[in-house]
């Protein structure tokens, strides 16, 4: 696969689910994907919803969080359901392939519930044959009170930096980390390069997809900035 071909596939998947991507804050909550309800200090309960389906054409194994906040749970549910619906439109694998079924796996990581923000990482993996699955690491962030989805402009405001300033800082860190394998185009000042991020109590972490800033073998990359608000 060419240098950016895999990233283009992942970017297309990102477009399919959308770019979903302050003062005093309380310690962040870390919860495991056990399916067991976890009560946060703010009396929000995280549970795990499951979707499992198998046909001769595909298998679906999905887990995603529910926070008991109706506006946020509705948005998360729509994102997941849209992802499943889009996956089901993929053509079946040709006879004789090593993987006779298309496979969709969804998991979540790093749930955080603060006084102002609810945030988590959704990991979407599609395997339709080939050397490896295509994976998307999508940070989903919501204003806890209004349920509004927070986008990259909101993230820039939280760290009080522009897209250009973030690009300079990210590029320096990734070049030091990755050396000659760093793909500069994936971290330039185009705001869409910073559409996937996570918010926690004290930082904003930008997530870069496989193939976006490095070869697939390097995996996804993350760079964090201190929250200023």
Keywords:
single chain; 229 residues; alpha+beta; 6-stranded mixed β-sheet; 3-stranded antiparallel β-sheet; 4 helices; flat
Task: Summarize the model shown.
This protein is of the alpha+beta class.
Reconstruct the topology from this structure:
Elements: H1 5-17, E1 38-39, E2 45-54, E3 58-66, H2 70-88, E4 102-113, E5 117-127, E6 134-143, H3 152-159, H4 163-178, E7 197-199, E8 203-208, E9 221-226
Parallel strand pairs: 3-4
Antiparallel strand pairs: 1-2, 2-3, 4-5, 5-6, 7-8, 8-9
Description:
- The chain has one domain (5-226): Heat Shock Protein 90 (2-Layer Sandwich).
- The protein has a six-stranded mixed β-sheet with strand order 1-2-3-4-5-6. A three-stranded antiparallel β-sheet has the order 7-8-9.
- Helices cover 24% and strands 30% of the residues.
- It has 229 residues and is an alpha+beta fold.
- The relative contact order is 0.17.
- The longest helix is centred in the middle third of the chain and has 19 residues, at 70-88.
- The model is unreliable at 1-41 (pLDDT under 50).
Largest sheet, strands/sense/barrel: 6 strands, mixed
**Globular, elongated, flat, extended or rod-shaped: what is the shape?**
flat
Cα-based radius of gyration, to the nearest Å: 18 Å
Portion in beta strands:
25-35%
Kindly give the count of domains: 1
State the helicity in percent bands: 10-25%
């Amino acid at each position: 696969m060419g240098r950016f071909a895999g990233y283009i596939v992942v970017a297309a998947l990102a477009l399919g689910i959308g770019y979903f991507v302050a003062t005093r804050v309380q310690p962040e909550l870390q919860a495991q994907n056990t399916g067991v309800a976890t009560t946060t200090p703010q009396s929000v309960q995280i549970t795990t919803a499951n979707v499992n389906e198998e046909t001769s054409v595909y298998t679906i194994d999905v887990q995603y969080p529910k926070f008991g906040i109706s506006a946020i749970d509705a948005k998360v549910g729509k994102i997941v359901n849209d992802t499943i619906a889009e996956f089901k439109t993929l053509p079946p694998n040709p006879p004789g392939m090593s993987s006779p079924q298309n496979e969709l796996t969804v998991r979540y990581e790093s749930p955080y519930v603060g006084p102002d923000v609810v945030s988590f990482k959704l990991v979407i993996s599609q395997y339709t044959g080939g050397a490896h699955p295509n994976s998307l690491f999508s940070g989903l962030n919501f204003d806890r009170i209004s349920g509004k989805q927070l986008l990259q402009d909101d993230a820039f405001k939280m760290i009080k930096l522009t897209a250009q300033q973030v690009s300079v800082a990210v590029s320096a860190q990734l070049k030091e980390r990755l050396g000659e394998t760093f793909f500069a185009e994936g971290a330039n000042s185009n705001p869409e390069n910073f559409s996937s991020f996570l918010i926690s109590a004290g930082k904003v972490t930008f997530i870069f997809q496989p193939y976006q800033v490095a070869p697939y073998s390097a995996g996804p990359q993350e760079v964090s900035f201190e929250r200023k608000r």
